[in-house]
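Service request form, structural biology core

Requester: graduate student, group of Dr. S.
Request type: structure prediction, single chain
Budget code: on file
Notes: please return the result as structure tokens.

Sequence provided:
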Amino acid sequence: MPEGQRSTLGPRARTCLATAVLVLAALFMCFDSASAQLFQWTPEQLIKYTSKNPYDRFPGGRPKVPDEMLERLKGLVAEEVQAVLPNRGFLNQFESRDGWKVLQPDQKMVGRVVTVQFMPLRPDIVEVDEADAKAKGTSPARNQTAIDMLQPGDVIVADVFGADWNFVGNKLAHYIQTTTKNGMIVDGGIYWLERIAATGMQAYYKNSFPTQGMRVMVTGINIPVRIGKVLVMPGDVVLGDREGLWFIPPHMVREVVESGELSKARDDWSLMMLGTGKYTSRQIYGPLTPELQKPRPICSLGTDARVLSRSVLAWVGSSSDVAPLRKRASAMSRA
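Core staff response, request fulfilled:
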């Protein structure tokens, strides 16, 4: 196209062109590593089943929720993000921490999901996979096939069906941590726990064994997997905290974050009002009088968390009896 000439492609055509570029990139960059799996999604299929994703994509089609949204989500907790998804029909997106072990109990984890699925090893299926891989000049998929696909900000989610098998030890865990600056979720085992825990890496896992208890095989990478009662998709955003794990579809992330920020601002306002000692719990935590409704932070979705915190700061004002609370609100507004 000559310099200065505008493109005549419409929005739909540009979207189709972008999709085609992603598919071609995936074919050149990712196909061989995923060619020897029992279950596979082509880039077209991954794009089809995540078609509501409003953001960019990685080569291969996985949605790429922006870092800015991940950072905002890190400021929230499970209770602050729970309102939106059930009301939109997503009733099975939360996995309770019950039954899980957490390597760093006081540490939150937020990131983009990469999935890998395992099943018990079966020799006749392995023979077919190995022959298929040999014919294509590659090798059967293994845990490291998925691990070597990770990008900064990713969280690898391994469906190991709760098996007595360790997904990684300390060396592969170190690679995951240094590559992603993040943790992992393993419905199965990890080992060398003392060494991994000492690095500060976060992990949700089911068990641990000093040796492998059984043999398994990779049956899919970046396909839908089941973690507890949740169907997890590649490209979902996970929030893990003391309560458990929320898996958020990419197209719902912004609404979840904005709703959570509003909930947090209102909660902070309530805590500060209760902290003044001027009101009973029922006056603040219940139906508000008209006098109290006026100063309460009431903002629409889409308002930045810092703006909400400034509205709390404006209510606090310069009154000397709430100086400690004003200091806290001021710190929130600068965050």
